[in-house]
Structure formats: C-alpha cells, structure tokens
Automatic annotation (TrEMBL):
Gene3D superfamilies: Aspartate Aminotransferase, domain 1 (3.90.1150.10), Type I PLP-dependent aspartate aminotransferase-like (Major domain) (3.40.640.10). GO terms for molecular function: identical protein binding; L-tyrosine-2-oxoglutarate transaminase activity; pyridoxal phosphate binding. One of its GO terms (biological process) is L-phenylalanine biosynthetic process from chorismate via phenylpyruvate. Residues 27-391 form the Aminotransferase class I/classII large domain. GO terms for cellular component: cytosol. NCBIfam families: PRK09257.1. It comes from Paralcaligenes ureilyticus. This is Aromatic-amino-acid transaminase. The keyword Nucleotide-binding does not apply.
Amino acid sequence: MFEHLEKYAGDPIFRLGEAFHQDPRSQKVNLTVGLYYDNEGRIPLLKTVQEAEARRNANPQPRPYLPIEGLASYRSAVQKLLFGANHEVLRSGRVATIQSVGGTGALKVGGDFLHAAYPDSEMWISDPAWDNHFAIFQGAGIKTHTYAYYDPETKALLFDQMLGQLSALPKHSIVLLHPCCHNPTGVDLSPEQWRQLIPVLAAGELIPFLDIAYQGFGAGLQEDAYAVRAMADAGLSFLVANSFSKNFSLYAERCGGLSVVCSSPDETERVLGQLKAIVRRIYSNPPMHGGQVTASVLNDPELYALWEDEVAQMRTRIASVRQKAHEQLSAKLPAYDSRYFVTQRGMFSYTGLSTAQLQALREKHGVYIIDSGRISVPGLNTHNMDYFTDAMASVLRG
Ligand code: LMR
C-alpha cells in the first residue's frame, strides 16, 4: 500500500546528533543539536524546575484535559515574559496567547492560522535559516522565499540589503524574524536596526512572525525581548512563537507559546477562537506537566529570581566558551580570523567551514558540526576546548 513512498532521509540536525552518539571513539565533540550542556557535558535539570516538581509531587493532582488554549497561568506568564508585565498590549487585552507543543508547535499553529487568514500570502525567511522553518511553513501550505541576511565573507548582517528587499514585498507578506540569537548564524539586529526595520514592516503592511527560542541566551531575558516589545510599542499586528526548551532546559516537555498581537479586544477574541479551532483539530489540547512546572516558576517571585540567575549562568558560560575558543584559535592559528566566536551571540556560531573541512573534523577528529557549518557552542567546555581548537587548527591548516 505504501511502497511508493520516499524514504525519509532524516532531519539534518538530529541525524548528525545520532551519528555522534553511535561513534565509538572516546575522544569526540558534539556540536550538533541546539542543546545547552554544562561544563561537564550534562544537560542541566534546573534547580527551579526541581523545586517546582517537588512542590507538585507533594500535592498530587488528577490530570483532566487542559483547556484547548492551555493553562491560564502559563499563558499569562508567557505574555509577561515576552511583552513585559505592564505593557499596554496586555493591559488593553490585545494579545491572544495559546500554550503550544514547543516552539515548533507554535510555528505550525501560526502557519495554519496565517494560511487560513491570508491564503495568498507568501513568506520570507532569512538566508540562511533554521531548515525546519521551510518545512513547517511549506507544510502549512505557505510558499516560502528567502531574504538577504548574512554575508559569509564578513560574517556580518546584510542589513541594507535585507531592508531593501523587505521594503519591496507585496502587502500582507509574512516575514519570519528572530528577535535574538539567530539560528543558525548567531548574528542579530541591533536595537537601532530594529528601530529602522519596524517602520518598513508597518509601511508595507507586512505580517511579522517572530520566533524567539533562546530568550535569555543573548544579552538577558528582558534585553532579548527588545524586538517583541518595540513592535508592540509601534502598534504592529504580529505573531510570536516562543519556547522554553532551552531557557528552562525542558526540551522533552515541549513547552512553548504562540501569541498574536491584535488591534482590539474583539479581534483578539476572534483570533484566539481560530487558534483554538486549529489546535482542536490537530492535537486537541496541550500536555500538562511542563506547562505547570514553568508556570509555577514564572509566577512565583522567589523562584523567578532563581530562574533568572540560572539562565544568567547558562548565558555567561556560553560567552566565556566563545571567548576561550577565540583566544585559543588566535594563538594556534594567528592567520585565521576567529573573531566571529565573540561577535556572534547565543547558542550558535556560524563557522563558514567547507564541506571538506567539516568532513575532516568529523572523520579524523570526531568533532561533529552540522553540514551548514553551524556550531552549537555549549557543546564546548574546559575539558574539550584544547582538543577542539587543535582539531580546528589542524583542519584549517589543510
Ligand atoms: C537546533 O536548531 O538545533 C534546535 O533548535 C533543535 C531543533 O529542533 O532543530
């Protein structure tokens, strides 16, 4: 019955993560999937998460269905984290938020929603991008294109080209943007550049779709939400997909949110209703555990402060790893410009290594980097840094 189907080649990111685990060598380095590891190479179980779970276990509760839109305490916590507790869009009831199945679930529901609301709209995604963005939105029936974003020569943003291209898009085009820690390049717009971009989005009546999966890993939880808040300040209507996979280290719990900023409370009610209708026909309602845990941390001032601190520790470690990689590479290979390690931010660095260099790193040294040359920086630590920079230097020398 199904013999005619193509074989799935596997996801390019997860496939390489699996290949790493199957590699029998003891000396190897995993820089593939965007997972935060601590200095000992472990995925942390945050203290705040453990505390919230302990409280929950001390008072076991039955597990009925959650509402289609998710837990109310979770949804309002997501809104406060994204927009700031007292933002006008929240006070005036202009944000429709649902609890989603991870950030990816939010993108999928948002894609279905936009395709139904604006069937002729097409989407523009940064070049390069997280590969799954194309798959998710094409799967929702939306035609995708790319806009200029990153210059491999200078390893910097092509801001003028980006601005020029976006200002020429047809009305109601959808523009996918990363408020912080761009995946895969680690190159972000500055606040000043966001301030220049926002009037272009408004003038073109474009529909921004912000994907914020690494809030807190760039400059800070509040700072990383700059673009979200600036767009809300400017009175734009837009969508935001957020994820707690990384900043709560709760990957498998699939905790995310989709928020749509609307122009009135009446519109918000209509939008929330449509989001619920989409959720009901895909997965009916979201899971409970991760939502309850994150909501109890976000809504408890004491736990929130501890969590901020835990996020700061992850952010600081990533920054120090970046610094170390740059220092060691500059010392071992002075002709090689490794400044991108420190100018790029968040989880990822975009090395620009060639296919042959990536292959040599993998085969000769057991250093696993995905085919785009993107490094997931937290895979580096004080124990494997020397080994990594030696391997890089050896391959770059050719
Ligand atoms: C990544 O880009 O590695 C992460 O966002 C994990 C994923 O789902 O691809």
